[in-house]
Amino acid sequence: xxxxxxxxxxxxxxxxxxxxxxxxxxxxxxxxxxxxxxxxxxxxxxxxxxxxxxxxxxxxxxxxxxxxxxxxxxxxxxxxxxxxxxxxxxxxxxxxxxxxxxxxxxxxxxxxxxxxxxxxxxxxxxxxxxxxxxxxxxxxxxxxxxxxxxxxxxxxxxxxxxxxxxxxxxxxxxxxxxxxxxxxxxxxxxxxxxxxxxxxxxxxxxxxxxxxxxxxxxxxxxxxxxxxxxxxxxxxxxxxxxxxxxxxxxxxxxxxxxxxxxxxxxxxxxxxxxxxxxxxxxxxxxxxxxxxxxxxxxxxxxxxxxxxxxxxxxxxxxxxxxxxxxxxxxxxxxxxxxxxxxxxxxxxxxxxxxxxxxxxxxxxxxxxxxxxxxxxxxxxxxxxxxxxxxxxxxxxxxxxxxxxxxxxxxxxxxxxxxxxxxxxxxxxxxxxxxxxxxxxxxxxxxxxxxxxxxxxxxxxxxxxxxxxxxxxxxxxxxxxxxxxxxxxxxxxxxxxxxxxxxxxxxxxxxxxxxxxxxxxxxxxxxxxxxxxxxxxxxxxxxxxxxxxxxxxxxxxxxxxxxxxxxxxxxxxxxxxxxxxxxxxxxxxxxxxxxxxxxxxxxxxxxxxxxxxxxxxxxxxxxxxxxxxxxxxxxxxxxxxxxxxxxxxxxxxxxxxxxxxxxxxxxxxxxxxxxxxxxxxxxxxxxxxxxxxxxxxxxxxxxxxxxxxxxxxxxxxxxxxxxxxxxxxxxxxxxxxxxxxxxxxxxxxxxxxxxxxxxxxxxxxxxxxxx
Length: 770
What we know:
By secondary structure, this protein is of the alpha+beta class.
C-alpha cells in the first residue's frame, strides 16, 4: 500500500501472487486505485506540515522578542537596561591628580566640580609570614653510601631547569668524600656546579652549590627566591633483554659469553591459588626481586638457568617457577597451582635520593601538591624549637581545627596545601590565604577593606606558628576631605551624589585634587540609537512576515514527490512553501499596532513625546520604523536630559502584574514612559508565568516555546495532534479499502480459473482436446 509516499504491496506486507489467471498486473492496478483514495490523506499530511512551519515561525518571533527583552530590559544589566537612569545621565570625569583619585559620573549628579584631598587609603587587615617558612634543602644522610649502576643518578631542578646528576660508582664513607672538591675531580659538587653554571667570586659561588652541613648535604642558592628540588631519576634497566626473555618468560636463542655484574636484577610476580579452611579458593600475589650479588660470566644457558632457578627458589620457594636452558635459550614455566606469572625489568635509581637523606620531590620551597603531613616536616624550626612540641600538631584522627573570624575550618594531614588554601578561602571567614614560592611566605588578607582585624586561633595545632603568621595588621578606613568636609569610607571606591570616586593614593601635604564632570552626550545617544535600531529590526521582521505573499501553488511535498527531486530542488521548493504562512496574522498585526501606539500615546506629567526629542516615524512604506534626527536628539540629551529620561524610563506607581484590572492597567500605561510600556506589552506576549486563569503569554498560548511546558500545551500543538488522530483514522480506512480491492481481484482470478478449467473439460468431452 502507498500511504503518503510510503509504498508497499500492503501495510501488512502480505505476499500476493496476483494475475495468474487473468494476466493482469493486479498490484499496479490497486496502487493506481489507491493513489486516488489516499489524496485526502496527503492533504492531511500537508496541513500538518503547514501547521508545524507556522508554529516554527511564531517561535522564531517569540525568541527574538525574548532576546530583545533580555538585552534592553534586564535590571541586572544597568549598562544596557533602558529603564536605568544611568543610561540618560552619563558623565565624563576629569581628575587633576589621576594618580590620587579618579571618578565616573552617573545618575544623581547634582554638581559638576568637586575638590578632594585623600589623607588615608582604605586597606584590608593582613597578616604576612615574618620570615621564610621552609627549611633549606638539607639531607640527613649518615654512614657509608654505595653508588652502583642501579643507584648512581638523581634529578635536580633549579628555577625550572632540570638536570640529571650522575655520580661515580664506589663506596663513600662520608658526604665529604662523595662531594669532592667541586673543581676537577668529576664528583658530585663539580657536576652540580657545571650543570647550572656559576663561578667563584670572592670565595662565594654565584650559582647553585652543594656543601657539607655537619654530616649532611645542603643545597645552597644564591638568591632566597631560587627554587631547587631533588627527585629520583627512575629509569628501567632493560635487563630482561640481556637474558633474552620477555615478560611472559618466553626466550630467544642467546649468544655467549654473557657477563652479568653484581647488582643487576629483575623481578618475578606470581599469582598462586590455594584452598582455604572453609573450602573456598583464594589467590595470593607475590613479587620478588632476583639479584646477582657478584660478577659472573656464563658460557651456556644451562649454567645461567641453574643460577636463576636457585635464586627464584630462594625468593619464592621451590616448585613455583621452572627455568629451562634447553635449545640455547631461557624459558620460564609456571608450576601447577600458579595461576599466572610475569617478569619485569627492575627500575634504576629508586634508592639513591634516600641514600642522600632526602625524599623524592623535596624542595627548599613548599609544593601545592604536598600533603600537610609532608609539609609539617618541612617547616623551618627556630633555634630551641622541638619539632614534637613546636611543629604542627594533628589529633589522633590526623586532623586539626582552625578558627578564623569565628569560623571553624577542619584540616586533614592528607589534605594538600592547595586543598588547605581552598578550604580557608571558601570557608566564609572572609579571608584569602596565599603562598608565594618566590618569597617562601604566606599571606592572609581580609576580603574586604576597612577598619577591623582578623581573629586567629589554631586551637593548639601550631598552624599559624609554623606559617609564621601570629599577628595581623588591622585594616583601615579611607579618610578624605571632600569639598571641605572630612569623611571616611570602608572602601577606596564609593559613590556620593551620583559620582563614583576611586582613591588610588594619598595626597601630598598641600595637594587638593579637582574632579570636573562633563555630560557624555555621545554615550547616551549611542545607547538610545542602539535600542532604536534593534526595535526597527524587530518591527521589520514582523512586518515582513505579515505582508509576505502566500505561494499557494507550492504545497508541502509528499515523500513520493521528494524521491523524484534533488536536495537543492527540495530546499528551494520548501523555501517557497514556507512563505506567507503568517500573512495578515491578526495576533502579530495587533502586536505591531500596540507597540507603535505605545511610542506616541501621551505620557502623564511629561510634555512632548519622542517627536520632541528628534525621534519620529518614517514614511508609510517603512511601516512604523523609527527615524532619528541625530542633531535634535543630541541637543535634547544635552539640554533636557531629565525630559529624555522621563520619555523613555518614567515609571508608574502601579507595578506590572498579569492580573491588573482594566483601570489599573490603563493608569499604569498612561503614567509609564515608552520603555515600561514596551516591556509590559512584551511580557503580555512572551511571559512564561501564568495569569489567574492559567494562561501564559499570547504567543506562548498560540505556539509555545521549547524548554517550557507550553511546548506541548498550545493551540497549534492541539491542531497538530488533531491532524495526527485523523491521519491514524484515515490510514486504517485506507488499509481496509486496499484489502477490499485485493479481495475483489482474488475473487475474479478464482472465477476465471474455474471458467478455464470448465472450458478445458468441455473441449476434452467434445474430442477437441489435444
